[in-house]
Amino acid sequence: MAREIYKGEIESLLADGALLVDVREGLEHGRDEGIPGHTHVPLSQINELRSQLVVPRPVIFYCRSGLLSFQAATIVANWTEQPVYYLAGGLVSYVNA
Asked: 49-90 pLDDT, tens per residue?
């Protein structure tokens, strides 16, 4: 099951080796750099890139507002036993927190 997390929780998960995934699509992804250290896997390609997301560590998804990351996290949570998270409020809340 995917779980919602907030900015303060991301830092410790990343320090412990979590995979950070930006699921924004092409043009939206190109508007800014996003959160440092992320891997880009657009939501539209999530099934094709499944092998990059089923890893032996927690996975954190984010997008601009949280909707796409929720969808991605819900999909990937069905593929793995590892913890799967999505950033509440997306990049907008991360930047403004």
From this structure: 999 999 999 999 999 999 999 999 999 999 999 999 999 999
Q: Identify whether the C-beta of residue 5 lies closer than 8 Å to the C-beta of residue 43.
A: no
Question: What is the rounded distance in angstroms from the CA atom of residue 51 to the CA atom of residue 74?
Answer: 16
Q: Where are the beta strands (DSSP E) in 23-93?
A: 39-40, 59-62, 84-87
Cα 40 to Cα 69: distance, rounded to the nearest angstrom = 12
Using DSSP's 3-state secondary structure scheme, residue 85 falls into strand
Domains defined along the chain, listed by start = 2-96 (3.40.250.10)
